[in-house]
Structures are given as C-alpha cells and as structure tokens.
Amino acid sequence: MMRNGFRPIADAEAPDPWDSAVTRATFENVTTSQHIVPGQPVSHPGPAAADRITAASGITLPIAASDLLGDNLPAGSVASRDEDSADRSTRPLGDLMVEVVEAAGADSGIVEFSALAMPRISYCIPAIGDAAHPMSYSDTRESSGLMLHGTATVGFRRDPSDDSRLTRWVHMHAAWTDADGTLHGGHLWPASRTADPLAHATVWPLYGITLVNSLDEETRMPVFAPLPTSVTSAGRAQLRARSGARPAVFARVRPNVDIAWAVATLGREHGLAGGSVRGGCGSLTGALFDDGRVVEGPATEIIALSGRIAQGPTALSASVISASGRVHGGRLAARGNLVSVTYDLMLTGPPADEPLDELSSSPRRRPHGGSDR
User: Fold this and answer.
1) Whole-angstrom Cα distance, residue 345 to residue 251?
2) How wide is the angle at C-alpha 88 spanned by C-alphas 82 and 90, nearest 5°?
3) E strand map for 322-363
4) Which helix (H) or strand (E) holds 276?
5) What is the pLDDT, as a whole number, of residue 121?
6) Count of alpha carbons within 13 Å of 27, Cβ hemisphere only?
7) Which of 15, 19, 161, 326 is deepest in the core (most CB within 10 A)?
8) Of 43, 193, 228, which is closest to residue 123 (Cα–Cα)?
9) Which pLDDT value is given to residue 15?
10) How far is CA 50 from CA 29, 218, 365, in A?
C-alpha cells in the first residue's frame, strides 16, 4: 500500500520520510526500541562523536586497471597466503584491488569493477542486531557467478592489539548473477576469487590521502577514515604521465547524517561543482527512492553511488542491498537517506586545466548532520 507517497518494498508499512524524527536529527544517543525504519535516526552503543563528517583532500585521476596490470593476474598479498588448497588459476579479489591501487602509485583508493567470472564469492549480507547493536551481518555465505558491478575501498586496517601495526584491508560491495541467472548482492570478503583479469575496472587512486580502518567507538564496528599524507614519488610520476588529474575529497560520514546533505556540503566547501560522486562502500538505515519505493533497513548496504555535483542539491543514484540480499536501484529521494554505520564517500572535482601540485590534505570535521535542512 502507499503511505505519504512512498511504496515499501518489504511487507512492513513504510515510514513517513518527512516525519519530525528525521528533521530534528540530534547526534546524541537516541533512546528507541531499535525498531529501525528508513529515514529515521538510529542509536548505537557508544557515545556519538561531535564531528559527523571527517574529510581529507588530495588528488585523483581515473586509470583503467588494464593499463596498469595488463592481462596478467598478479600474485596477491592479502588473502592468498592461507589458501594453499585453492585453485591456482584464480586469485583472491582483494589482492587484485590492492595490486591495482599500488600500481597506480598510491596506497589507498576506490576501484569500480564489473564483468568478472567469480568461481568463489564469499560474502555476507546485512542483518538485524539486538537492542544495543542494531546492525549486524549474516554468517558467511558462498556463491559463484558473473560479477555485474561492484565498488571497493582499498586501504589499511589497524591492529586492535597494536595501534602501530597496519595490514592491508579492502571493503567491497557488489552484485552478481549465479548460474541460474538469479541476482544477488552482498558484502564481499577479500578471499573471494576471480578467474579474470580486471579488464573492466577503473581505479581512482588517492594521492595525498591514506585510508585506515579501525574500531569506531560510537558504532563498535571497524570503519575507514582518511588521514593526510604526502604524495609519493610513484604518485607524482603517475600524475605527470597521465591526463585527467582532478581534486579529490574522501570523507568518513557517520551515522544519522543525510548522505545527500553530506555530498552537497562537501562539494560546496571544497569547490567541487561540476565534479562527480564516486561513491564508495557504506550503509543506510534503509533506502528511500524518488519514485516512492522504500527498501527496509536496518543496514541497507550501498553497492554504488553516483551523481554530478551541482551548486545546489545533487541528485544521487544508487544500487543497494537489502537485509534479504536483494538488489534494488534508482534515483534516491532528495532527503531522508541517513547513514546507518558509516559511508566511504569519495568526491572529485572536474579535471584540472593545469597540472595539480601536491595538495595540503589536512583533515576537516563537520559537526552537523544535515537532516535539519
């Protein structure tokens, strides 16, 4: 049935996305029953940080993975060490994501990929948690098939027992079809394996920004955040050798922030009008589409997010994964799509007319969440 113009995809009644609970977003712990509905704030177990968006600026440019890796499947370094019995004709997908970012002269970045034969897809989907931890994940599932499209955030993970120790980590969301033609979506584990080179992938390396995944006090979950770094000599060589360099901003967007507001605010503050939303991985408290569809939460994961950054509000399109593992897509509603746990948001400006010098990438924090527009 229809309610306030929004048609729920699940059986449950759709919420009113313009309810006052949406517009009075306070970022204190919200005392609710943890019955999470799309467009309404969610409570997490830890104290809410004052800064709701942490961003760093740098430089990027689009590079075809095939230009960097050719047709070879490179030896990996993320998951393959423990896969002695695995088919040697395939490689862990996480390894390839790291390899292509490093080949671009960066240590972190976003990779957009498609059209991959995947003999092993190891994944999970969003799941309902408990009163203290409203979001969770399913047990690991196994599948195989043709990868249709996906996004990977590539960086490092901080060792919980030793803050000084960093290991490689990749955050991947994707959609694929299995042998029966059934469409699936999920959060991929790095050990998922492909038999193909990254012939249909674009890497957006982050020059001047390093992404580090660590335990977040508010959500008690591991999340990526940007740290400013210097552009390496390998990165400078890529920028000199290739055209298309442009300013980039990577932001960690925290819970209950309206994703459209985050895009508009960062685009305005960093002068990115005419640029694009490159997305990244993350989750919403359900998804509201502009045609009235509602995808129920509590943690609807985004596979891809795109849009052209405008002077005013930016129209965003997304493909998302529901808690049942179904994939939905379309243009998002102009407001009410609140971040659930985190969002790895990457924005780029238009290509620069002149060569870009190394940018100062000091972190910037934003105390407001934007649902009070």
Assistant:
1) 5
2) 95
3) 327-331, 339-348
4) strand 276-279
5) 97
6) 24
7) 15
8) 193
9) 31
10) 12, 11, 9
Neighbours of 75 (CB within 10 A): 9
The answer for residues whose C-beta is within 8 angstroms of residue 17's C-beta and 6 or more apart is 4, 6, 38, 39, 288, 333, 335, 336
Place of tokens 């290739």: 242
Cβ–Cβ under 8 Å, residues 17 and 2? no
Whether the Cβ atoms of residue 258 and residue 373 lie closer than 8 Å to each other: yes
How far is C-alpha 304 from the geometric centre of its chain's CA atoms?
7
pLDDT in tens, 320-330: 999 889 999 99
Residue 156 parent element (H or E): strand 141-159
Q: Dig out the tokens for 265 from the structure.
A: 């605010």
- Bridge partner residues of 252 (DSSP): 54, 344
> How far apart are alpha carbons 70 and 129 in whole angstroms?
43
Q: What is the per-residue pLDDT across 157-181, written as a single tens digit (0 to 9) for each?
A: 999 888 889 999 999 999 999 999 9
| Longest distance between any two alpha carbons in the chain, whole Å | 58
Of the chain, the end-to-end C-alpha distance in Å amounts to: 28
d(CA 277, CA 345): 8
Average pLDDT, the chain: 83
Alpha-carbon span 114 to 172, nearest angstrom: 12
Output the CA–CA distances (angstroms, integers) from residue 115 to 3, 112, 138, 199, 373, in the order listed.
Answer: 38, 11, 26, 8, 40
* C-alpha dihedral (293, 294, 299, 301), degrees to nearest 10: 0
The tokens of 221 are what?
């979950």
Q: If DSSP codes are grouped into helix, strand and coil, which group holds residue 85?
A: coil
The answer to whether 84 and 286 are in contact (CB under 8 A) is no
Domains parsed from the chain with CATH numbers: 7-60+243-366 (3.30.1330.80), 63-205 (3.30.1330)
pLDDT beyond 70 at 369? no
CB 178 within 8 A of CB 104: no
The answer to whether the peptide bond before residue 298 is cis (omega within 30 degrees of 0) is yes
Is residue 285 within 8 A of residue 300, CB to CB? The reply is yes
Alpha-helix runs per DSSP H in 159-308: 233-241, 259-269
